[in-house]
Amino acid sequence: MNAQTDSLAVALFSEILTVDQLARNNVAKALPKGMELNHFSVLNHLARVGDERSPAQLAKTFHVTRGAMTNTLGKLEWAGYVHIRPDWDDARRKKVAISPAGRAARDAALAAIAPIIHDAVERVGADKVRAILPVLRDLRINLAGES
């Protein structure tokens, strides 16, 4: 690597990390009382996939430890936002599904954060956002070791 490439890489990742921090802070402030960003992320994922997932699958999807996911799922279950049941094929495993209350909580959270996201895209410009999405997707895939 040369100094110019190193400088470009540092600038890129500095911007990504700063944008990530600002986005998380702004979105977290707008979430309904008691809901954390990781709660919303899991509920949103379950609502989008429309099917049950195992805690291990969710941990892999969100790049967190199984213990961290178990903690998040325990809080979501306590709130009534997810149903956790044994896997009928393997009693050692569990399956997680979003509940009607979880779907309502996710929808309320989405309604609260939508203006923030919309406003940010409006200020930057839809064309610029559309142009950067493939680059960010390629970076995510590269960093996650996906193909």
The overall strand count is: 2
Largest sheet entry: 2 strands, antiparallel
Question: Termini distance?
Answer: 24 Å
Count of runs of 4 or more consecutive helical residues: 6
Summing up helix and strand content along with how strands pair, one would put the structural category as mainly alpha
- Specify Rg, calculated over alpha carbons: 18 Å
**Can you tell me the CATH superfamily?**
Winged helix-like DNA-binding domain superfamily/Winged helix DNA-binding domain
Give average pLDDT, whole number.
Answer: 93
Q: Which geometry do the CA atoms define?
A: globular
* Contiguous runs where pLDDT drops below 50 for at least 5 residues: none
> Within the largest sheet, what's the order of strands?
1-2
> How much helix is in the residues?
over 70%
Name of the CATH first level: Mainly Alpha
Per CATH, the architecture is: Orthogonal Bundle
Beta content comes to: 5-15%
User: In total, how many domains does the architecture comprise?
Assistant: 1
Key attributes of the depicted protein:
Arc Repressor Mutant, subunit A, two-stranded antiparallel ribbon, mainly alpha
Could you walk me through the main structural features you see in this protein, from its secondary elements to its overall organization?
- It is a single chain.
- The chain has 147 residues and is mainly α.
- It has one domain: Arc Repressor Mutant, subunit A (Orthogonal Bundle), CATH 1.10.10.10.
- It has six helices and two strands.
- It has helices at 3-30, 37-49, 55-62, 66-78, 100-124, 126-144; strands at residues 82-87, 90-98.
- Helix 3 (55-62) crosses helix 4 (66-78).
- It is globular.
